[in-house]
Amino acid sequence: MTETPTVVSPAWLETHCETVTVVDVRDRREYEDLGHVPDAVNVPADRFRDPSSVAAGKLPDPDAFADLLGERGIDSGDSLVAVGDENGVLAARFLLTASVYGHEGELYLLDGGLEAWREEHELTTQAPALEPTSYEAELRDDAPIVDRQAVEAAAEGDAVVVDTRTPAEYDQSHIPGAVQLGWEALLDDAGRLKPDDELEDLLTERGISRDERIVLYCNTARRLSHTYVVLRSLGYGDVRFYEGSLTDWLRANSPDWDPIQLYENVREVASNGFEALPRELGEDVFGRLHLIGLYTQRQEGYFMLRTKVPGGILTAEQARAFGEIAEEFATAPEEHGGSEQNPVHGDGFLDVTTRQGLQLHWIRIEDMPEIWDRYDEVGLTTIQASGNTLRNVVACPAAGLGDETIDVRPIAERVADRFEGDRELANLPRKLKVSVAGCHENCGRAEIQDLGFTPAIKGGRDGFAVKVGGGLSDGPRAATDLGIFVEPNQVADLSEAAAKLFIDHGSYLDTAVNRLRFIVAEYGVDAFRDELERYAPFAFEPYDEAFTTDYRGDHVGVHEQDDGTSYVGVNIPTGRIGGDEFAELAALAEEYGSGQLRLTPNQNVVLTGVPDASLEALQDEPLLSTYSPDPGPFSRGIVTCTGREFCKYGVVETKGRGYRWAKGLDEWAEETGLADALETVRVHMSGCSASCAQPQIADVGLRGEVYRDDYESTRAADVGLGGDLENDAFVDWLVGSVPIDGIPSVIERTVRAYEIDREDGESFADWTRRMPDTELRRLVAEGPEPNRPVVGTEVS
């Protein structure tokens, strides 16, 4: 068995071509169409790399690797020459993989790759005849792989730590004491390995010597593979490598990724304007700004500002200050329409989010120090309002007001406080979403959270059951019950434990699989629970009984509180409201209620503590004719994301369109006599394929896209029906690319068909599950089938 891959020249390969197997690691199309070394077998790099794995490392499964090589006719004793593009990085990755999985033959890397071979030799497109073998692969006991603890020990002086990432990545942040050595430094301009004497000088300059142990790391293992092969070929005997990502460690030790330091740095340079940010804080600053709530928007030079509101609870003072800031600073310049920039909402508006937070648009960086000063005066913050950290903690909007097992308000605050300002917890592989609800109606929507806490009991003690691994977007997954009981004072501890597990086991590289739910899915619930318990500061125990019995869709309307007063939920269609109107709501909360407002996951606002004697006067206020506690069914159910108006990913505009649709559909429902029968029709519209508006849990889910045919291109939406969070059911995406102007008619005829066909007490979601998909698709795409009543045609 070889441990020493060797770099060889094209001339060497020509001499030994009869006794070696050439392995071409380019993708199949390049191998077949552009040609390859005669008799070379194709083992594409995407087949022996596993960047999506959330387990320890990114090596492929050994059985899968064995099957791959066996299919290609490779035997464990064959001498292999790996060939790739000129830099040889992926070819080196193949050799490293074969070595650690026990390949017994010699291993060689062709210097300069296929380009070097082509300088003097012809390529062929003729595929070799392959005879499958029974290749075996198993991770060697002495494989040169080290774990994170070994890297940490090396950083303390136990070995030479070599950072194989790019110089720019190294300069931005690196393990203290590490030296930088990437494959680029080892090759000349032609992509060939530099002469041995130049390489020795280079290594000596970096402090890398043969008599010391060497530990390599990077954030894409293919880079370190090339450095590993070159060092071993040069005779460096004790070379090891770390397979995982150290992004979390690097960021946690870098002031650039410290949210508090970033906040201070931005305050210092803000007066110099937008262009000063990349100039003075680095080209990557715009991604880091998410940690302090700032996102660039579609309009160059302006920001969307996200504000954290744990549990959605605002004092009237905070709400008034925020409304005034919106009116003063969230204003469009004249070249973007000024006060008329939005035909529905005008200017100076704010958005309530589906995570009970607040957002502003048109924010200039020059204004941020004053905005932050005003925030400080009332106790608001944007620190870790976004980014790869804990997102705003969602809680029941009626926490502490009615029938519940536990008042979760202080718990939501504790969880938020535990993460705020912590450099390590500010740099997770991806965002972490947590909800906590003490009522029996699952107002925190535990099923779509990374961690959802719902009420439970153990031995007479009140606490929580825990659901884990929920999420929407691509591959939606309903959270799984872990079957454990958590005391109220342990919720923050468990949230931190989950975050640290996420840091150690999550993928920092592949955005397609870097949510907590992928770890849960890969481990399985039992194994995940066992692993989580290792991180938690308390032993797990099962609950006796869980108390979630129902699902509440919203908190709109007048509802009694335990203290004899009422809370009033006012409907904010699409969550957008003028800053002056929001400040007026704050004044109404003080005049008629307790002086507190609650934001809801359906983008509405609740005023609390209103005495019975004041209810009529509050409902008679002119503002509540606009933002009503008794809205039409479509206004009550409309939820939208930011949309194309500001979001760079948005395909369709959502806020103005959603508002107009809801009002028009309400009128249609009144005219057709359906309004009394329809309390709420939940229409959720995302402006792109993402899930910011949570379309998967709606009655009617919409995702914006572009429709193209042979003649034209127009805005469109995918249509899904039947989301039902109470039954862990997501919408069934039935029809794609419906032209956007036709969506209201789709909703009309679908809702009308439901009213005609539904059985007593049957919900919209239940009806969609009973109806054949073929009929639902026809209804959405074409209208009702022949000989059925024509529905939804009264109002276009």
From TrEMBL:
InterPro entries cross-referenced by the UniProt entry: NIR_SIR_4Fe-4S, NiRdtase/SiRdtase_haem-b_fer, Nit/Sulf_reduc_fer-like_dom_sf, NO2/SO3_Rdtase_4Fe4S_dom, NO2/SO3_Rdtase_4Fe4S_sf, NO2/SO3_Rdtase_FeS/sirohaem_BS, Rhodanese-like_dom, Rhodanese-like_dom_sf
Can you tell me which family this protein belongs to?
Belongs to the nitrite and sulfite reductase 4Fe-4S domain family.
Phylogenetic placement of the source organism: Archaea, Methanobacteriati, Methanobacteriota, Stenosarchaea group, Halobacteria
The protein's name is Ferredoxin--nitrite reductase
Q: Which organism is it from?
A: Natronococcus pandeyae
Stored PANTHER family: FERREDOXIN--NITRITE REDUCTASE, CHLOROPLASTIC
Query: Do you know which SUPFAM superfamilies this protein is assigned to?
Result: Nitrite and sulphite reductase 4Fe-4S domain-like, Nitrite/Sulfite reductase N-terminal domain-like, Rhodanese/Cell cycle control phosphatase
Coiled-coil region: none
- Tell me the Pfam families matching this sequence: NIR_SIR, NIR_SIR_ferr, Rhodanese
Q: Which GO terms describe its molecular function?
A: 4 iron, 4 sulfur cluster binding; heme binding; metal ion binding; oxidoreductase activity; thiosulfate-cyanide sulfurtransferase activity
Identify the keywords attached in UniProt to this record, alphabetized: 4Fe-4S, Heme, Iron, Iron-sulfur, Metal-binding, Oxidoreductase
Question: Which residue ranges does the record assign to the Rhodanese domain?
Answer: 16-126, 155-258
**Which stretches are transmembrane?**
none
Spell out the Gene3D superfamilies in the cross-references: 3.90.480.20, Rhodanese-like domain, Sulfite Reductase Hemoprotein, domain 1
